[in-house]
Specification:
By secondary structure, the protein is mainly beta. The protein is built from 2 helices and 21 strands. The chain has 2 domains: 115 residues, Jelly Rolls (Sandwich), CATH 2.60.120.10; 108 residues, Jelly Rolls (Sandwich). The strands form 5 sheets. Strands 10, 11, 14, 15, 16, 17, 18 and 19 form an 8-stranded antiparallel sheet that branches. Strands 1-8-3-6-9 form a 5-stranded antiparallel sheet.
Length: 254
């Protein structure tokens, strides 16, 4: 899926395949520096390992929020040889002041994701941020302490259901329809396409006759220069050169 950068988000990859040839190779050991990766599994099992000895399995409905910071070297390999493998990987930028902080993980099991009703026929799975439930309770997602104060939520809508999601004036982001059909205000959302949200907008979502599943993602913009080379995202070309040199000298991670 194509994704234009929407500050603070760098990339959204929506992967989905029932053909093991597409995913069996996985992602062998590779580096990151200067940003965060969020992996949200819709269906499938993926094992992750890193240079610090962290290891775990990401299951359907689970999330990994990884802050690469100064540097991480990790691998993500399938724990299945057949069946559907589908989900999302989102890259979230870090401000200059946090690009070289120590690497950290938040691994969230499927049952830890906050799942609740927000309107008639509308259920959410809230990973990060806060939303009000249909009964008026304020619910927070399990991911915390992230610099961009993000909202990351999957919205599951029954046919014809409607829901207005309030967005804080400090956040910018996007809505991504990945199943069914839905409208945002007067606009029809295109399947597998990120629709940019203005700051502080109310999201008037309405599902079509087949229902809908969407991701709504928002965060505080950074508004700094971006220099990117593959898995390294910094502010200047010199910092990119340094990241490459550090990686080649086996000192990327500190």
């Amino acid at each position: 899926s194509q994704f234009a950068r929407i500050d603070p988000f760098l990339m959204l990859d929506n992967f989905s395949s029932e053909n093991p040839d597409d995913y069996i190779a996985g992602f062998p050991a590779h580096p990151h520096r200067g940003f965060e990766t969020v992996t949200y599994m819709i269906e499938g099992r993926m094992r992750h390992r890193d240079h610090m000895g962290n290891e775990g399995i990401l299951r359907s409905g689970g999330v990994q929020w990884m802050t690469a910071g100064r540097g991480v070297i990790h691998e993500e390999m399938p724990e299945q040889e057949e069946g559907l493998m589908s989900g999302f990987q989102l890259w979230v930028n870090l401000p200059a002041s946090e690009k070289m902080k120590p690497a950290a993980y938040q691994n969230i099991e499927p049952e830890e994701v906050a799942e609740f009703d927000v309107a008639d026929g509308v259920r959410v799975r809230l990973v990060a941020g806060t939303l009000e439930s249909v009964s008026g309770n304020t619910v927070s997602g399990p991911v915390s302490g992230i610099s961009r104060q993000p909202l990351f939520v999957e919205v599951q809508m029954q046919p014809g259901a409607a829901y207005t999601l309030p967005l804080s004036s400090e956040l910018s982001g996007f809505v991504y329809l990945f199943e069914g059909g839905a409208g945002l205000g007067a606009e029809k959302l295109n399947l597998a396409e990120a629709a940019e949200l203005g700051e502080g907008s109310e999201l008037d979502l309405r599902a079509g006759p087949a229902g809908a599943r969407l991701l709504v993602v928002a965060g505080r913009a950074i508004a700094e220069p971006i220099a990117q080379y593959g898995p390294f995202v910094m502010n200047t070309h010199d910092e990119i050169e340094q990241a490459i040199a550090d990686y080649r000298a086996n000192r990327l991670t500190g």
